[in-house]
């Protein structure tokens, strides 16, 4: 008895190890707390979805309605109904949704646009374009009249227009049958249009505003022309110049009978003559064919491609070598103020790139810039084709060095000291050690980042656009300037050719750029795998 | 556990219903028609005030939405119909693109109203391949002029005198500029236009119907090329320099490192508050009158107005109210610009605005056809190539190349 009671007292207390922070945090959210958090988050999500559905339904975006409803129901199911197979989905769903929303959908949209003529003059649907052409083809006839107007109802309650000729000041009543003069003095007008008409009740306020559609289609025939309300208080005599032949689907010009037919690529044309606006329609591989055949696109393409690769590669190599050098230099044991140096090196990374690019643009101005003044040189940093290229690479490298400094510093720590130690015992010099031991080991960790950085700089629109704007211009100037990389050149193609904007062509070029980057990255990654085998 | 799960499902469903109801209530509240106007931050106050005055008289409601000026044009093509504006406040050189896209509606002004506007302001807002139509009511006009620091130099009577005074001032101290006119690496064809027109250059000719003809490009027309060697002379003596960008030009004039500055009324407040004694004038005639580009801003009715069922209201606001002298004066002066309506123009008594107005005499409205977007970069580039100091391309060569490139791009 005594032995049994003494036992707990004498035995050493078993210490239960305290769980780490993360598991503790996770456990905090399991049980009731977790359930409540889950319910709140899901409720917020559903409320948001319900609101979005409401908006989408009111605008008639039916495809989006179905996708959103299905996705929301799916999410609710995954988190509320415990099934064995939904468990992994709980972790995969959030990431997948963002992937689809921000990566997959823009890609699909880009591909879709690349096969259309989406550009200035081709952004409406065909039916919108037809109704717009009908509106713009109306023209005031010679000596066409304009009227101050009031909308009114006659004694029978039928809608009529009370009209006062702006020039002759004569009064009329207009119906769909025609124009009838009114006796002088039966109509009064004010700054807001017709204020009263004997024998008619004026339609005012919300009742008048609600007639918008009716007024747009209300025509008082006058010979070939018709008086059409233009606003709630004015009407103009207009005459059509084109006739829409719905059966044949063509416009016919009334003056000479010329037929404007659908040309298959989003316009009504008659020979070289074209009606504006056109509409957005599929054009197959036309945009891709233009990249190959249109001299405007094809001539500078290779030159721009070469410079793009040089720019991306130059930026990555320069910034990586400087970053690595600094990392090694600051890795030295016993160095004082190490933290200060590191903080200073990371500064370019902390300043928003937009800002530093604009500052650099000022610093490099060849007449007034600080760089030329300090060094008492006269280098045309931004005005000479070759120097501008150098500037682009230097500034981009300046922006990227901190990244590679941080990455290299981390990677250096992970290289076991025994290896360099062993190398030193074997009689290797510092350069040899770096070349044969440190660098290969470092590259295993850093090579994928180098490729990623290359791909990033390949499409580094900001740096080029804000620093040089693609300039200086080529002497035989074309769309592409001396420092334009593919993506900034694409941008210029999209906004500054032909009639202004050509999104279809720009999307086609974007797809080509994507293929080039994908190809380069794929080849590089397969090479990196070879590096790993070395270790 | 089962009750908990049921509770969860109930809570989630309830929240969804609540949200749907809230959305429904908000939509039901809108009864009177709302006219939506897109404008930029600078014009917001004046536009709101003028539009509200109109709305009160009419019993309608206006909703002024602030957008970045440049994105008003571009967003109009991509915006969802439900969010689209009924009226936009924009620049006349958007007219071609917007009309070609079918996004704006024609406007018909009465003969009496038309008479109150200079023909070029209405022309600036007109566009059409065969039939030209008016798509906007102009509200304010602007153009650049030559700003002279009268404390430092005399007002030049001829271009030769301008050249001589400017160069003399440049020699006075290192870092001085002759004529502070902004270009920068990308070029600035707008600010260089007085030099361009003074040498006989033009952008697009007109066809027999009086419309701008994109196949008639005057960037390297024979008259201009005959005088182009003057540009090489200016480059050699440093009268103009491509390295000067907008901030350099402004600083140079304000710190008295330049006695001549080419700029517009958007800097008139800065000028007045600088304490510098100045006068604004049109640059003296070079070979031909050195006229600037004219910019006209105005109101346009979008095609969405009829989709929203407020077309007749929007047309009433734009065609019948914005065109009146009182609305014009309020809109233009709030923005520090000269009103387009001549009756309103007579009531402006700001001497600086009036001087800028005179500096625009005979000016050319910026071409409003969409092909203009192919011109800016090339024309700017030609100026940069020929005025970048040492190593510049002869003007004859660079402008000929620019003309060829523009023709290529327009296709």
Describe this structure in words.
The complex is a heterodimer of chains A (535) and B (411). Chain A is 57% helix and 13% strand. With 535 residues, chain A is an alpha+beta fold. In chain A, strand 13 and strand 14 form a beta hairpin. The radius of gyration of chain A is 37 Å and the shape is elongated. The two termini of chain A are 65 Å apart. The longest helix of chain B is centred in the first third of the chain and has 28 residues. In chain B, strands 1, 2, 3, 6, 13, 14 and 15 form a seven-stranded mixed beta sheet that branches. In chain B, 47% of the residues lie in helices and 16% in strands. At the A-B interface, helix 3, helix 6, strand 1, helix 7 and helix 8 of A face helix 1, helix 4, helix 14, helix 18 and helix 19 of B.
Using brief descriptors, characterize the structure shown.
heterodimer; A: 535 residues; alpha+beta; nine-stranded antiparallel sheet; 19 helices; elongated; B: 411 residues; alpha/beta; seven-stranded mixed sheet; globular
Name the chain pair whose interface involves the most residues.
Answer: A-B, 94 and 96 residues
**Separation, N- and C-terminal Cα atoms of chain A:** 65 Å
What's the gyration radius of chain B in Å?
A: 25 Å
- State the helical fraction of chain A: 55-70%
Helix coverage percent of residues of chain B?
Answer: 40-55%
- Please state the oligomeric state of the protein chains shown: heterodimer
Q: Radius of gyration of chain A, Cα only, in angstroms? A: 37 Å
Q: Which sheet architecture does the biggest sheet of chain A show?
A: 9 strands, antiparallel
Largest sheet properties of chain B: 7 strands, mixed
Shape label of chain A: elongated
DSSP strand content of chain B: 15-25%
The average pLDDT of chain B is 89
């Amino acid at each position: 008895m005594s032995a049994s009671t003494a036992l707990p007292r004498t035995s050493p207390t078993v210490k239960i190890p305290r769980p780490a922070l993360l598991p503790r945090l996770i456990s905090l959210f399991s049980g009731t707390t977790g359930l409540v958090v889950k319910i709140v988050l899901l409720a917020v999500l559903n409320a948001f979805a319900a609101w979005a559905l409401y908006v989408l339904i009111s605008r008639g975006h039916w495809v989006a309605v179905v996708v959103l409803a299905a996705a929301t129901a799916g999410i609710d199911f995954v988190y509320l109904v415990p099934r064995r197979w939904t468990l992994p989905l709980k972790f995969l769903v959030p990431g997948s949704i963002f992937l689809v929303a921000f990566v997959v959908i823009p890609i699909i949209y880009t591909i879709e646009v690349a096969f259309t003529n989406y550009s200035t003059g081709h952004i409406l649907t065909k039916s919108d374009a037809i109704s717009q052409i009908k509106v713009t083809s109306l023209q005031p006839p010679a000596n066409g009249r304009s009227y101050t107007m009031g909308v009114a109802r006659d004694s029978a309650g039928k809608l009529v227009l009370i009209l006062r000729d702006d020039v002759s000041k004569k009064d009329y009543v207009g119906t769909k049958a025609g124009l009838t003069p009114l006796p002088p003095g039966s109509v009064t007008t004010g700054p807001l249009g017709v204020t009263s008409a004997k024998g008619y009740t004026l339609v005012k306020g919300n009742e008048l505003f609600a007639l918008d559609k009716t007024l747009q289609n209300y025509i008082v025939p006058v010979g070939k022309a018709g008086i059409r309300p233009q606003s709630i208080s004015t009407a103009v005599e207009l005459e059509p110049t084109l006739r829409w032949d719905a059966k044949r689907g063509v416009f016919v010009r009334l003056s000479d009978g010329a037929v404007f037919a659908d040309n298959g690529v989003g316009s009504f044309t008659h020979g070289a003559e074209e009606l504006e606006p056109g509409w957005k329609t599929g054009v197959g591989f036309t945009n891709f064919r233009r990249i190959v055949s249109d001299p405007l696109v094809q001539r500078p393409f290779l030159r721009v491609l070469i410079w793009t690769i040089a720019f991306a590669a130059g930026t990555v190599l320069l910034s990586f070598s400087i970053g690595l050098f600094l990392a090694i230099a600051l890795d030295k044991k016993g160095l004082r103020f190490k933290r200060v140096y590191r903080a200073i090196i990371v500064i370019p990374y902390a300043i928003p790139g937009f800002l530093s690019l604009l500052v650099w643009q000022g610093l490099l101005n060849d007449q007034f810039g600080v760089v030329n003044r300090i060094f008492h040189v006269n280098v045309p940093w931004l005005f000479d084709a070759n120097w501008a290229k150098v500037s682009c690479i230097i500034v981009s490298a300046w922006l990227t060095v901190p990244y590679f400094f941080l990455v290299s510093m981390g990677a250096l720590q992970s290289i076991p000291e025994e290896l360099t130690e062993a190398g030193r015992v074997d009689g290797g010099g510092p350069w040899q050690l770096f070349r044969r031991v440190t660098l290969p080991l470092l590259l295993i960790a850093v090579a994928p980042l180098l490729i990623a950085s290359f791909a990033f700089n390949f499409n580094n629109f900001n740096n080029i656009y804000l620093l040089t704007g693609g300039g200086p211009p080529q002497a035989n100037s074309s769309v592409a300037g001396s420092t334009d990389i593919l993506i900034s050149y694409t941008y210029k193609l999209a906004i500054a050719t032909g009639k202004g904007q050509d999104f279809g062509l720009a999307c086609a070029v974007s797809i080509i750029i994507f293929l080039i980057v994908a190809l380069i990255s794929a080849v590089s990654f397969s090479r990196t795998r070879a590096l790993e085998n070395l270790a | 556990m089962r009750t908990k799960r049921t509770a969860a499902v109930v809570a989630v469903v309830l929240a969804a219903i609540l949200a749907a109801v809230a959305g429904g209530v908000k939509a039901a509240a809108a009864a009177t028609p709302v006219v939506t106007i897109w404008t930029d931050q600078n014009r917001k106050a004046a536009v709101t005030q003028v539009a509200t005055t109109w709305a009160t008289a009419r019993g309608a409601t206006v909703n002024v939405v602030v957008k970045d000026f440049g994105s008003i044009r571009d967003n109009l093509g991509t915006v969802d119909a439900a969010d689209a504006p009924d009226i936009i406040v924009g620049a006349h050189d958007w007219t071609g693109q917007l009309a070609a896209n079918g996004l704006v509606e024609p406007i018909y002004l009465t003969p009496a109203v038309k008479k109150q506007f200079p023909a070029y302001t209405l022309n600036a807002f007109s566009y059409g391949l065969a039939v030209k139509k008016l798509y906007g009511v102009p509200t304010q006009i602007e153009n650049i002029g030559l700003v002279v620091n009268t404390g430092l130099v005399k007002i030049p009577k001829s271009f030769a005198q301008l050249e001589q005074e400017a160069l003399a001032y440049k020699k006075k101290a290192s870092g001085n500029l002759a004529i502070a006119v902004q270009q920068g690496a990308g070029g600035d064809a707008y600010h260089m236009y007085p030099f361009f027109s003074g040498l006989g250059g033009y952008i697009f000719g007109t066809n027999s119907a009086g419309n701008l003809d994109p196949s008639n490009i005057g960037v390297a027309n024979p008259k201009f090329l005959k005088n182009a060697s003057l540009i090489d002379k200016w480059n050699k003596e440093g009268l103009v320099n491509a390295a000067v960008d907008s901030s350099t030009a402004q600083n140079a004039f304000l710190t008295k490192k330049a006695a001549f500055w080419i700029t517009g009324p958007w800097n008139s407040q800065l000028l007045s508050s600088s304490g510098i004694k100045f006068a604004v004038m049109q640059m003296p005639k070079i070979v031909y009158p050195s006229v600037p580009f004219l910019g006209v801003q105005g109101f346009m009715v979008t095609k969405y107005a009829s989709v929203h069922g407020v077309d007749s209201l929007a047309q009433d606001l734009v065609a019948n109210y914005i065109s009146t002298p009182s609305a014009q004066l309020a809109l233009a002066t709030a923005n520090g610009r000269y009103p387009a309506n001549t009756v309103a123009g007579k009531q402006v008594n700001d001497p600086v605005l009036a001087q800028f107005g005179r500096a625009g005499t005979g000016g050319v409205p910026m071409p409003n056809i969409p092909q203009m977007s192919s011109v800016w970069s090339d024309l700017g580039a030609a100026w940069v190539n020929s005025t970048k100091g040492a190593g510049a391309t002869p003007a004859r060569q660079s402008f000929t190349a620019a003309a060829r490139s523009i023709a290529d791009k327009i296709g």
